[in-house]
Amino acid sequence: MKKSGILNRHLAGAIAELAPGDTVLVCDAGLPIPSGPRVVDLAFRAGTPSFAEVLDGLLDELVVEGATAAEEIRDANPAAAALLDTRFPWLESVPHDNLKALTATTRLVVRTGEARPYANVLLRCGVFF
Q1: Residue 2's pLDDT band (boundaries 50, 70, 90)?
Q2: What does the pLDDT look like over 59-95, one tens digit per residue?
Q3: pLDDT digits (tens, 9 = 90+) for 12-59
Q4: In the predicted model, is pLDDT for residue 129 greater than 80?
Q5: In what helix (H) or strand (E) does residue 110 lie, and over which residues does it extend?
Q6: Distance of alpha carbon 129 from alpha carbon 122, whole angstroms
Q7: β-strand 38-41 against 108-111: which pairing, if any?
Q8: Helices 78-87 and 51-61 sit at what angle, rounded to 10 degrees?
Q9: CA 59 – CA 116 distance, rounded (Å)
Q10: What's the CA gap between 45 and 50, in Å, rounded?
Q11: C-alpha of 17 from chain center
Q12: In 43-120, which residue ranges form alpha helices assigned H by DSSP?
């Protein structure tokens, strides 16, 4: 058994299968999940695990070369916007409907227990070398 890093076997396995250019959607409990991608639902109860906890855990495991969030996050969820700004100073913002459309081609969806609106980000995987 792993003693550090991501212990959820479904999430660890899904991360191991990602390739450069694949996208990972980290989403709140309210975002509609598209059919097709692999889904790892970590939601336990409202707020658990938080968007920040899941995002930071994933960033310990992934190389991210791009990130996209809904532009509505700035007004609707300033705390999540500030979190994304600290993690991704080059964050791309698109209208929420465009973000939902982009999720149709994502490879992996990681659902958090976050219960605040627009706590969603689409990560594009890079290479570690």
Answers
A1: low
A2: 999 999 999 999 999 999 999 999 999 999 999 999 9
A3: 999 999 999 999 999 999 998 888 899 999 999 999 999 999 999 999
A4: no
A5: strand 108-111
A6: 22
A7: parallel
A8: 10
A9: 21
A10: 10
A11: 16
A12: 51-61, 73-76, 78-87, 96-102
* pLDDT value for 58: 96
Compute the chain's Rg from CA coordinates: 14
DSSP state of 72: T
| Residue 116 identity | R
Q: Which two tokens stand for residue 85?
A: 């700004």
Q: What gap in Å lies between CA 112 and CA 43, rounded to an integer?
A: 5
pLDDT exceeds cutoff 70 at 3: no
Q: Which amino acid appears at position 65 of this protein?
A: E
- Please state, in angstroms and rounded to a whole number, the distance separating the CA atoms of residues 93 and 45: 28
CB distance 67 to 102 below 8 Å: no
